[in-house]
Amino acid sequence: PSRILGALGMSVALAFSSSAMADGPIIVKFSHVVAAKTPKGQGALKFKEVAEKLLPGKVEVQVFPNSQLFGDGKEMEALLLGDVQMIAPSLSKFDRYTKKLQLFDLPFLFDDMAAVDRFQQSDKGKELLNAMRDRGLQGLAYWHNGLKELSTNKDKLQRPEDVKGLKFRIQSSDVLEAQFRALGANPQKLAFSEVYQALQTGVVDGQENTWSNIYSQKFHEVQKTIAETNHGVIDYMVVTNAKWWDGLPDDIRAGLEKAMAEATKYANEEAAKLNARDKQLIIDANKAKVVQLSKDDVAAWRKAMAPVWKKFEDGIGPDLIKAAQASNN
Ligand code: LMR
């Protein structure tokens, strides 16, 4: 940690002196792991468009999609080292920085995306944007993707017992690990950029993701069945390096805040549209079969995953869980 802190201090010092000396625009590198035609991909491009319009000649935003610049596992360190200024990891990927965000991975916590949105916009939700400041990370906004579906390379995927013994790719989240263990399955943490190949070669049997990620990564072409479980959520926190952010000239920070607010609104509208569109495109492609669950099926999944909550309750904080649950009405 001291080595990282030392490097962080140095790169922040360098970043300050170079932006103070140079006449050119401040470069804001925004790195992410998904395709451009996804909610996050579209949000990043909208942020660039608005930021450069509001701060002409003062700011240049460079967007790097598809893990091109940094993938999972590298992007947070890169942010702390000043190699990139903005990233938007899924809320499942902050385990190492705070336990509080594990909240969002609790299975069947939110009834729908409207509930997720209500919680994120509440005081408790907004507070979480500051939960990692002591680790050098400043949250700027939540961006939606959507609810997760479950897919496998098997014909039958209806009830929890159908996934017993199967290997699943998961994001780097201890909650998701516990979720699949509760189902009697074998979770394996893998970077997003490695999932397609892992599914194709049978390294894993299945995965969980949104319609948008499944379609844009072509997971439906290497899976047999997708069950519409809606058992969890993939949303993002746009985060920046707190020191870099605090050190920006006031007018630049204000402009970037405004651009972020517009990009957030746009990304969240796109999220619902893109997931609905991609679900239909997956059905039309007719490669993987899309399975609907009955109320009874959903109840069985819910019950099978329920033990996960107890395990993480203390780390997350019971009050936070209650507040999130309250957003379901
Ligand atoms: C995943 O790893 O499956 C997602 O978090 C990717 C993303 O950024 O949507």
From TrEMBL:
It comes from the Bacteria. Residues 1-22 form the signal peptide. The keyword Signal applies. Coiled coil: none annotated. Keywords: Signal, Transport. GO terms for biological process: C4-dicarboxylate transport; transmembrane transport. GO terms for cellular component: outer membrane-bounded periplasmic space. PANTHER family: C4-DICARBOXYLATE-BINDING PROTEIN DCTB, PTHR33376. NCBIfam families: dctP (TIGR00787), TRAP_S1 (NF037995). Belongs to the bacterial solute-binding protein 7 family. This is TRAP transporter substrate-binding protein. It comes from Allopusillimonas soli. The lineage of its organism: Bacteria, Pseudomonadati, Pseudomonadota, Betaproteobacteria, Burkholderiales.
